[in-house]
Amino acid sequence: MKKKQLSNIIMVAIIAVIVVAGILTAGHIQGWFDSDSNQAVLAEVKGIVNLQRDGVAFPVKQDTALRQGDQIKCDPGATATIRLSENNWLVVGENADVEIVEAAADGFVMNVASGEAFAYHHPAKEEASAAPVTLKFSEKELKVENATIGLSVLTGSENLNVYAGSVEDAKQGQMISWVEGKPSVMDLKIKMLNDFSINALRKANAQEVTCFSDADLDNLLEERRIQMQDQKKPESTKPTEPAETTQPTQSAETESVVEENNASDVQQPDSQKPAPETVPPTTAAPETEPPTTAAPETEPALSCTLSIVCDTILNNMDKLDPTKVAYVPSDGWILYAEVEFTEGETVFDVLQRACWDYGIQMEYSYNPTYGSNYIEGINNLYEFDCGSGSGWMYKVDGWYPNYGVSGYELEGGENITFCYTCELGADVG
């Protein structure tokens, strides 16, 4: 009897030890016992954000202290804010995949494998010696100090937007774009901003105004709201031609005289008709042309060249939807033309006008996430018509921009190419 009681006590003790060990292990992995005040903290979590630590992945909650080696992945629509101090913080956006290289708040290093990250680094006077935030991506290392930036990392290209301060060779209001490792600096256009950037900028503007104020962002969102309301596909017919010019009509007085004369002709025989009164000929006053006003001088129209090609399909006809064969030209060229445009117009405006003028079918939809129209199909060739990696891409002067066609504002002289890819861009360079 005593042996049985003893074995039961031992069994309960073992179970208790196992439970406590499990709790301690889970607490250690999830950081329940972390108390280092110099650690970076995942302060705000919106949506589903997964943290992978020590080989274990779990949905993370806010106010979780980060450690070296932590990997953060955000689901679609999710964001996570990493707080280093009141004036130093980062936000990672949806579909982001980042790894914490150094978790110390005064020496934070993060590797951005893909997705978007927004960094705000403006230490207060008492934090003047605070170390810069270091971002690593695609074998590059970027130090952010006294600046506000946005970083986007996609396959084959990376963009850095500088909203305040300066980073590398770019200053406030500029962006650096790397394509195949080659950097180029250009002006940053507000039309390029997506919802993630807009929300992060509002958070930054609450502390220090960036190159885009809240009023600028409000105007941008209002423009997009109107665009989404008014967006309609082009009608199937072109605008109606102006009505033909008709001959001037007779005046009421003239018509009355004509009617009276016609009536008298009917009522009286020819022998009883009164002799026609002789009316002295009148000399018509010379018609005077209205003074012409010289047309106001207009700015010379800007122009660019536009090419639409689908030659990659010719090498992948076995993948092509059989119902789309008739839409593929024998040489792969759908259009090559010079298109005029006015200042402020975008790649989308030029494509839409050219397709309209040359009778080429085009379908698009507005993507509010990226703040741009998305080209779904041209000449009845759509995404996935030639395999799972097929669809339309565009490049300007040989460069594939990392933002939508509605965000690329033209200046004149550009060479724009819309090309159909069958292999997620690998077959179009």
What does this molecule look like?
The protein is of the alpha+beta class. The chain has 5 helices and 24 strands. It has a 15-stranded mixed beta sheet that branches. The protein has a 4-stranded mixed beta sheet with strand order 19-18-24-23, covered by helices on one side. The protein has a 3-stranded antiparallel beta sheet with strand order 20-21-22, covered by helices on one side. A hairpin with a 2-residue loop joins strand 12 and strand 13. The longest helix is centred in the first third of the chain and has 29 residues, at 2-30. The termini are far apart. Residues 231-286 have low confidence and may be disordered.
Rg calculated over all Cα atoms = 35 Å
Helix content: 10-25%
> Largest sheet, described in full?
15 strands, mixed
Tell me the strand percentage band: 25-35%
| Count of individual helical segments | 5
Number of strands: 24
Gross morphology is: globular
Topology summary:
Layout: H1 2-30, E1 41-46, E2 49-53, E3 56-59, E4 64-65, E5 71-74, E6 79-85, E7 88-92, E8 97-102, E9 109-121, E10 133-137, E11 140-144, E12 147-154, E13 157-164, E14 166-167, E15 170-171, E16 174-179, E17 182-187, H2 195-205, H3 214-230, H4 252-267, E18 302-309, E19 333-341, H5 347-357, E20 362-367, E21 372-378, E22 381-382, E23 391-396, E24 415-421
Parallel strand pairs: 9-10, 18-24
Antiparallel strand pairs: 1-4, 1-6, 2-3, 2-5, 5-8, 6-7, 7-9, 8-9, 9-12, 10-11, 12-13, 13-16, 14-15, 16-17, 18-19, 20-21, 21-22, 23-24
